[in-house]
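Quick one - first record:
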Amino acid sequence: MIRINLLPSKKKAARASKAAAGGRSAGGGGQWWALGMLIGWVLIGGAGYWLLSMEDDMAADMRKQSAAKNREAEKLKEEIDEEGLEASKDELAMQEAIIEKVETKRRSPVYVMYELGMILTDGKEGGGPDIDKQKLFQLRKADPQAEPNKLWDPTGLWLTNIKESNGVLLIEGGARDATDLFEFTRRLRASAWFGKVSHPNFDRSAQPREGEEHLTWKLDVRVKRWD
């Protein structure tokens, strides 16, 4: 009599059980790995969104600050009185013109003319230049003949025209000869009232004065002080 065992053997059952357990184990590990990747991407995306949000907030804040500055500038423009500024400029120009006129009047030529008159006055009558001793000392060092001649007769020289421009006197006149002209120049240079004196430009006059020939001349002298 033949017997057939239809039940699986213990060995086969054990192997089947291990295989099933192994399949469940492998499937569980893959699921955890996929879940970890998903969480990582979510974190990265969240960080990126956070950074972008911060940048947008900063840009929006800067736009607000710029708008506020523009409003302040517009407000200042509205407060500035342009007509008032123009009026102030005109008033300042008028004041400067008045100051210039006052300064011109203050620089009265009276004392300068008086000094020229004393230079052309005979020493015997108390005439002569108001000598700057330190200046004359320096002039004598450069030229021993720079000392004014106290015995000079000033009738040998006369003035025909005087003009003033920017503190410089433009003087024209006549003289009997070059000696009188150079003595007049020496006195101008020694005077405390005058500064630089140009070399006189002279020529023989074509029209004799009182029947005598004479020189016509011109020179420039800077005024050192007015009063």
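second record:
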Amino acid sequence: MLLKLYGFYDGHGGATTLIALAIMFLAGFALSRVSKLFHLPNVTGYIVSGILIGPFVLNLVPPEVVEGMDFLSDLALGFIAFGVGKFFKKEVLRSTGSRVIVITLLEALLAGILVFVVVYAFFPELGLSFALLLAAIATATAPASTLMTINQYEAKGEFVEILLQVVALDDVVCLLCFSLASSIAGATASGSIDFMGIFLPIAYNLLFIVAGFLGGILLRFLVKGRSPNSRLIIAVAIISVISGCGILLDVSPLLSCMVFGATYVNMTKDEKLFKYVDHFNPPIMLLFFVMSGINMDLASFATIGIVGIVYFLVRMIGKYAGAYFGAMLTKTGKKTRNYLGLALAPQAGVAIGLAYLGQRILPVEMGDTFLTIILCSSVLYEMAGPALAKFALVKSGSIAPKALARGKKRNLVDDIEFHRLPLDTIEKREFPVESTAPKEEAPSPAPVFHDWRKSRPGGYPFTIARHNQDDP
């Protein structure tokens, strides 16, 4: 690339880093506004902005800044996994029964198996490790686009309940599959497979799961009685410790952070902490996805084109077929059986984070190809995901006609904020301020007996007159 626009501010130490961060923030924000015009998720705008300011277009970010932010993928993965953990409350898992588990296992594993068989059979030059890691990532589903579509059109019913539970459990299957695949890939890096080479990485992952459980217990006691800001700081510190230890020991922080979040929510029933973390996340996630776009190797497009297309199509077939057969085996309704697989198309956060881990495991050139395939397909999935999700929700009868008309006027991207409360509102709700005024200064009106309005269906018990109870 001839352009090196970063040269205008490069070589000034900390100032260079801060300017580069400002460029990434502003570029990500600007392109997310553009993606909103096309009713696409923010993640699409973030990745595209990274491509534009990256080395293949404007080249606005110095290479040393990009290299110095490698830790960002591990930290972002920690936050993503912690958020996934809140979906695994005991009462929810008990209520889902075996039906959702069977559907999730079939749709995730069939997609992974098909991707592995096809890629390894038709592209043997890529190797066993490449096919295994790609297959493991194929099992993941990104719920953001689907959730936004559900919120936008106020979708309800059995189809929506099953869909939400499946996308929550889906990432757990992906994390387990990727842990096993990365263990095998690491063991075969030397050209031979031995038992200890596979067993030890799995043992390390199990130890990290125990660490996540202990972290959840520790968090429960550390945040008790503390202010929202203090609770947020403690949670972020523990997530950072787990992610940092994962880098030191070459272990993914995903399973540990997920268990960390699940342990905390089951012990405390407190979901407000997850809202605090959600409000802390956006800058980190923006940088994570912008960095993903910067790291995308556009030069390899010519060689990965056919592999990327095969991955995109085969994964879609596997997701649809697995959801169909899973619903058939569990005797789920016909509409769920026919359309559930279409709503499982999107793939972004977890898949992109795992792609970075896979890039480290594979040789340099093959790792770059691997990352680019996942990034490109994620952009395509995020573009197609909302349309497929809407089609599935309409055909399954989950969207009422009036809600469909209202939903067309609502913004798809910003509607996810419908379920979020501003941080100051959350704080006020958690720590209500009781009035210290003497009771005599704020007397309550005496109840009025035989108020006819109380007998009205849905009527509010209005006070008609104020008088003393001692009055005749």
